[in-house]
Write a structure and sequence with these properties.
The chain is mostly beta strands and about 400 residues long. Helices cover about 0% and strands about 45% of the residues. It has an eight-stranded mixed beta sheet, with no helix packed on it. It has a five-stranded antiparallel beta sheet with strand order 1-10-9-8-7, with no helix packed on it. A hairpin with a 4-residue loop joins strand 12 and strand 13. The N terminus is likely disordered.
Amino acid sequence: MMRPRSYRRVLIAATALSVMSSPLVMIDGAQAVDAPGARPTGAGGAVPPPQTGDLLYRVTPLISLPGMDRAAVTTGVDVTDASMLLVRIGPALPGHGDDGSGGFLTGPGTIGARLNLLKTCPGGEPENWRPVAANARGNVMGVGECRSWEDSQVSQLSVVWSSLDDFSETVDECPAGSGCRVDAVALNARGAALTTKEMTVAHSLVTNVTGGGQSRELVAEQDGMQVRGTALADDGTVVGVMQVRVGGTTVWQPFVAPGRAQTPVPLPLPAGIPASAVGSEVRLLTSPDGKMIIARIGDSVVSWDAARTATISAAGSGFVPVDIAADHVVVGRTPQGPALWRGGIVRSVQVRRLPGDARLVDAGAINKHHQIAATMGYPDGRRKAVLISPVPPTER
């Protein structure tokens, strides 16, 4: 049975990985992705229409786990500023053996370690575990389930590992039979974890920040309104969407809770974006310094600067923001594949020497060097995590 404590230390064992012949690629500096020359603006300082360009990257296949099914799915989840790649494992494709849930963290010139989940569930079986984020300290955040051996009841935990050879700490949980679901959302550089908890019976949704010297729940000014945090800055700033009552109607609205504030502050929508375009599924992102916020709302990309002035850009480009680098370059998805956004301009990512018939299908995160945690796909349905890095101008 699960021990009734909100914080639990869980032993992790490290599993050695077999290393492929090529090390992960390292590059020097973010200038490799900057557009040449001055960035143009339209009349009155308006953001110009989106453009595509040639941002040249190179890719190195992921370090493999011994004994993993060739059809096992791996996904690039996050990449730290030290070029450590966080990888999610599974699920396996239909008709193949179960490769197990979980993930591992690996980097250039290192032997990575897989999260051993056998001791994360005292008295039970771990199920459906997935890594969510990693930070520069080597902390890893994940979420999963524990099925009791005694009565098959399922509890859900969100945990943070301070390092892969250390114990983990439970930062949020939903005990078996509680009627709630917890989700691991984000982990910042100071070790603070952002989680959400949804009570299915009471139809309530709360957002918590735990660790990194703080512990707080975001509470809307209006009673009974749901708050869904979607990103966390290094100073504790949380962004997301919340419910507000307007007349007799309840609508969703983007918010920011700056620093360590508990009360979310509504963010203004720019002209041309109706309030009805904002739903519970809208995902706001914040830069590590908390000075930039961006989201896809409807068919447009909306960004807010440090003064929280809203601007529409990249309308019709299909760009969906995924993560923000320290210098406010944004990696995202488009129908054509991963792309970068900066100052309202969207540029596609072109990858040099993809193996065989693979193509880049997704991007998960970006670091200060503009390296991207990505996923490549094959025609037979396989998905493999990769680290892609900008090609320096001297090598183009």
